[in-house]
Amino acid sequence: MGGLGQRLQLALREWRVPLALWAGLSALLAVAGPFDTYRLLAPLPRFGYWAVVVGVSIGLDHLFRCMMAGQSLPQRLIERVGFALGLAALVHGINLLIFDGWAGWADFAYLAGVVWLVAAVVELGHRLGFAPNQGPSPEAPQDDSPAGPGPAAVPPKQSPGFLRHVPAAMRGSLIRIEAQDHYLNVVTDAGSALVLMRFGDAVAELSEVAGARVHRSHWVARAGVARILRKEGRQFLLMRDGAEVPVSRANRAALRELGLD
């Protein structure tokens, strides 16, 4: 129940800004009445129209952001075509019901183009304003040789700056961090906690800590590794909390620098 309550609290905190954005944009667009809606709709229906359009847009955007987490900017821009087509189809259907003169593929194509352009601008702004996550990395083929003895534990240099994000009761020695959509599962020797934070920002804060990013969704502390495992040609790290963390090819060099490969 405690974990569920914490997740609900973080979810409410996460949606506070989108809800405020939805209310503000709906009111602004209802007053401005762009795309001729000021002339075609009375004030109350106009607000309802924009409230639905903005709400659907924010909801679909959140869904796509979850699906595209960790992908590169070109990949995100390409996949935003699907977002544009989906949102345009919904708005196109609403417009067919409301506006007599709305019809045809030309209007649909216009809608899809506008939606994709706005989404592309948002993606570019997001990339410029926040530390980017690395893209997905293919898993490295490994030989199936038995795992050697586990590396000796090295006391990590901890980061009080990062641990401020974790509840006081969980502020122990870091073992690992796992990205889960918009959250981080931070595991220490005192327990685990969900933190609302971008994975890339966490990795940046931990740059001075004895650890490494070993996968697009995993960061491990050097002292948190119990041993190295190889399963079906893939490499994993057995952590001191019992978790098995996958290692991607692109991040094996970081492991070597820590003496773990």
Query: How can the largest sheet be summarized?
Result: 5 strands, antiparallel
**Tally of alpha and pi helices:** 8
CA radius of gyration is: 23 Å
Instruction: Let me know the average pLDDT.
Output: 77
Reading the helices and strands in chain order gives HHHHHHEEEHEEEEEH
Helix content: 40-55%
Mind explaining what this structure looks like?
Helix content is 49%, strand content 17%. It has 261 residues and is of the alpha+beta class. The protein has two domains: 2-129, no CATH class; 160-257, OB fold (Dihydrolipoamide Acetyltransferase, E2P). The strands form two sheets. It has a five-stranded antiparallel beta sheet with strand order 3-2-1-5-4. A three-stranded antiparallel beta sheet has the order 6-7-8, with no helix packed on it. Helix 1 (2-32) crosses helix 3, helix 3 runs antiparallel to helix 4 and helix 4 packs antiparallel against helix 5.
